[in-house]
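Ops channel
N.P.: pipeline sanity check, posting one input/output pair.
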């Protein structure tokens, strides 16, 4: 019984954290995108406007 409970908890944690990959700390517009900051451009993370959500 303990194994089943532990498995359920592990699955719940994995499912709950998988959506965190889509999180973004900055502000996005209504399309889910934004312009890169100068700091991000210097680090090579992006080059301009980009999306964080799939555009519908």
């Amino acid at each position: 019984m303990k194994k089943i409970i532990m498995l359920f908890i592990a699955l719940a944690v994995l499912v709950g954290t998988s959506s965190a990959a889509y999180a973004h700390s900055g502000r996005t517009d209504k399309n889910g995108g934004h312009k890169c900051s100068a700091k991000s451009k210097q680090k090579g993370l992006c080059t301009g406007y980009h999306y964080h959500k799939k555009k519908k």
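N.P.: looks fine end to end. The beta strands are 33-35, 49-51.
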